[in-house]
UniProtKB/TrEMBL annotation:
GO biological process, one term: geranylgeranyl diphosphate biosynthetic process
UniProt keyword Iron, yes or no: no
UniProt-listed InterPro entries: Isoprenoid_synthase_dom_sf (IPR008949), Polyprenyl_synt (IPR000092), Polyprenyl_synt_CS (IPR033749)
Organism taxonomic ancestry: Eukaryota, Fungi, Dikarya, Ascomycota, Saccharomycotina
GO molecular function, one term: metal ion binding
Organism (species): Hyphopichia burtonii NRRL Y-1933
SUPFAM superfamilies: Terpenoid synthases
Name the UniProt record assigns to this protein: Terpenoid synthase
Keywords, in A-Z order: Magnesium, Metal-binding, Transferase
Family assignment from sequence similarity: Belongs to the FPP/GGPP synthase family.
Length: 339
């Protein structure tokens, strides 16, 4: 068997990879999202309001890179959460197997990194021939590496709180620790988008960093997700089950609030007496626990109130700094508040 070892293509890209290796990613990519491409909307909205990048090919590539990171993270998330469904369809690992899906997810991390550090600078070079591609690539690599560390830091804490015995009884995270976890996990891709926009901004007006706003939006997005996970029928249909966070034993915001405000509640019993999602699903406690969070500890109302409070905070900050009360970004935040 002859192998052309001296002709290995150093410029291998996503399009030239064997389909069988990236089937899990392409399968997930084709499933319609349930949030109307919200990250692309945020990208466009931030650019419209603050950064004014006029090069559509640069914006499209940033969006593509962030999308790859988002989609591949879902491949891994569904394995870590043992989720059977994603967006109402069978999760990729149930179709292609766990080993191939993990490998595909890891592969796409490097595909996204390569696009960001080689393709994106080359696209920008067409518009600005004076730039130093090597310096720009190094700046992008630093941004991506830091945010991937943050994302995995947050995800690791989320998993630790869920899977480590006796956390609920002895070491329940505080609401502040929850917020910090969310800023790392969910806020990562928001910050990644903002940092790339800042790097390529053509705005003549110097803007204070929008990273605090990106962090706030990450928290808003996660709180909304935590709330809908327990109460929204459409969300439950997309996930294939109701109360998925409770079945998995996650320390979501309403679950944390309930545990901190009631001892030996149905939520506490469900998470301590049953050790697996399957055992919890077979118990008769799910509806009782959700009802308890609604009626006894008002944890669902607390979560919704905090969501609306943070949405108001984000809107006020945008209006105060821009004077624009009807921007695309304001409209998106308004939609997120409608739960």
């Amino acid at each position: 068997m002859d192998v052309a070892v001296d002709n290995k293509d150093d410029e291998l890209d996503y399009s030239s990879l064997p389909r069988l290796v990236i089937d899990p990613y392409e399968y997930l990519e084709k499933i319609p999202g349930n949030n109307g491409h919200i990250r692309n909307q945020f990208l466009q909205a931030f650019n419209e309001l603050y950064y004014h990048i006029e090069y559509e090919d640069v914006l499209d590539e940033i969006d593509h890179i962030v999308t790859i990171f988002h989609e591949l993270s879902l491949l891994i998330d569904d394995i870590e959460d043992d989720s059977s469904f994603r967006r109402g369809w069978p999760a990729a690992h149930t179709k292609y197997g766990v080993p191939l899906t993990i490998n595909c997810g890891n592969l796409m991390y490097f595909v996204a990194m390569k696009r960001a550090t080689s393709v994106l600078p080359e696209i920008y070079l067409k518009h600005n021939p004076r730039i130093c591609v090597a310096e720009l690539s190094a700046s992008i690599q630093k941004i991506l590496t830091n945010e991937m560390i943050n994302l995995h830091h947050g995800q690791g804490l989320d998993i630790y709180w869920r899977d480590t015995p006796n956390v609920i009884e002895n070491n329940l995270p505080s609401l502040t620790e929850y917020a910090e976890m969310v800023m790392n996990k969910t806020g990562g891709l928001f910050r990644l988008s903002i940092k790339l926009l800042e790097l390529f901004s053509t705005s003549e007006t110097s803007q204070p960093s929008k990273i605090p706003l990106a962090n706030l939006l990450g928290i808003i997005y996660q709180i909304r997700d935590d709330y809908l996970n327990l109460v929204d029928e459409r969300y439950n249909h997309m996930k294939g089950t109701s109360g998925e966070d409770l079945l998995e034993g996650k320390a979501s915001l309403p679950i944390l609030h309930c545990l901190k405000n009631s001892e030996k509640s149905p939520v506490y019993r469900m998470l301590t007496e049953y050790k697996t999602s399957e055992e919890r699903a077979k118990s008769d406690l799910l509806k009782v626990a959700i009802q308890f969070m609604e009626e006894e500890t008002q944890s669902l109302a607390f979560t919704k109130h905090l969501l609306l409070e943070y949405c108001d905070k984000a809107r006020n900050e945008i209006v105060q700094t821009t004077g624009n009360k009807d921007s695309m970004l304001i409209q998106i935040i308004h939609k997120l508040s409608m739960v």
